Amino acid sequence: MVKKFDFLVIGSGLAGMSFALKVAHKGKVALICKAGLEEANTYFAQGGIASVTNLKVDNFEKHIEDTMIAGDWISDRAAVEKVVREAPAQIQELIKWGVDFDKKEDGEFDLHKEGGHSEFRILHHADDTGAEIQRGLMEAVRNNPDIDIKENHFAVEIITQHHLGARVTRRTPYINCYGAYVLNPETQKVDTYLSKVTVMCTGGCGAVYQTTTNPVIATGDGEAMVYRAKGTVADMEFVQFH
User: Fold this and answer.
1) How far apart are CA 204 and CA 24, in angstroms?
2) CA Rg, the chain, in Å?
3) For residue 221, how many C-alpha atoms fall within 13 Å in the half-sphere facing its CB?
4) Beta bridge partners of 122
5) What would the DSSP string read from start to end of 180-216?
6) Residue 167 DSSP class
7) Residue 33 — very low, low, confident or very high, per pLDDT cuts 50/70/90?
8) pLDDT digit string (tens) for 117-142?
9) Does the pLDDT at position 241 exceed 80?
10) Taking all residues of the chain, what is their mean pLDDT, rounded to a whole number?
């Protein structure tokens, strides 16, 4: 069966669901997750999420510097600066979508301070911040009529011009992505999902190791699909065990 969408999002954690919510007003979105919506690395994150919110004592430069030091200067500075500077706006979006962060009696965020941070800038929800973020976003995507959620569906291959008979190598100057082949376990058939934009939000590969606190679904499927499609993967030496 062939299904057509404007956006195809593979992965249902914070990255996948937030992207789906951001673009849903622009077209029809398919959100593919190989288990239930709640089964994502996001759900298991506990401590909190960092953002500069108290401008009386904190600023972007401090947060950027702290992050570069904690990453032993290996981090991509441009990426760090983008994430840090855009964090406050993204926090507000999470709140708009229904995520609840703990606040003090005066209404200000109850900020925590963790290793590597020079100021109090960790927003949290008790000690289950990831679960709260996942809960809020799941409710938001389920209530959005423009997002078609496909739980227990398994993306197996990215569709490129290779599937149209063209020869694609890692030296091909431009690789077109037309969507993905997705296994429907109920019918035991592989359906073709065509889309104008395909976004991989499948997380990491922690569960390929014997010892990990990652959910069992974190097996690197997305990374493998991109690699097989001759796409670029980077920083594969960094594995999140917890």
Assistant:
1) 25
2) 19
3) 21
4) 50, 112
5) EEEEETTTTEEEEEEEEEEEE-----GGGSSS-SS-T
6) -
7) very high
8) 999 999 999 989 999 999 999 999 99
9) no
10) 95
